[in-house]
């Protein structure tokens, strides 16, 4: 497996090809001295449950893992807080607005995208939907469904970080 830094051949500051590995997390330009650190990208996901002991899951409309289950969520945009990102992503994917956003945990992940492994830190929140929300699949989602806790099949959730988050939530809330 190629190290993600191998994809960066030129210094982003001066364009020099003299851009060797500095250590396992960075490259350093020998011409201008710029050090580039490859840090994880921030992403968010929402655990949303209803009064019927069901969790809101989405079916992925696109690769990676098209057709598998996922929590609503996605990447945090530049200049955006994680809380604003979860509001935006849930709305974009389900048409519903969230309230009562609470931090649940963070889970590192590797997200394969266009032949490149994007290392992410997935920040998971528990949220509730505003009353009388109407769910409509949009954006990266082909289906939005509430699944009873006991019928959630973890093997249908292919993103490792999301599977771990759902598994942890179920262990805590459904012993």
Walk me through what this model shows.
This protein is α+β, with helices and mostly antiparallel strands. It has two domains: 4-37, no CATH class; 41-173, Nucleoside Triphosphate Pyrophosphohydrolase, CATH 3.90.79.10. The chain is built from two helices and ten strands, in the order E-E-E-E-E-E-E-H-E-E-E-H. It has helices at residues 82-94, 160-173, and strands at residues 21-23, 26-28, 35-37, 41-48, 54-60, 69-70, 73-75, 98-113, 116-129, 141-148. A hairpin with a 2-residue loop joins strand 8 (98-113) and strand 9 (116-129).
Largest sheet: 4 strands, mixed
Q: What is the second-level CATH architecture of the largest domain?
A: Alpha-Beta Complex
Per DSSP E runs of 2 or more residues, the count of β-strands stands at: 10
CATH topology of the largest domain: Nucleoside Triphosphate Pyrophosphohydrolase
SSE run = EEEEEEEHEEEH
Strand content: 35-45%
Helix/strand/pairing category: alpha+beta
Question: What value does the Rg take, in angstroms?
Answer: 19 Å
Termini, distance in Å?
38 Å
Uncertain spans: none
The CATH superfamily of the largest domain is Nucleoside Triphosphate Pyrophosphohydrolase
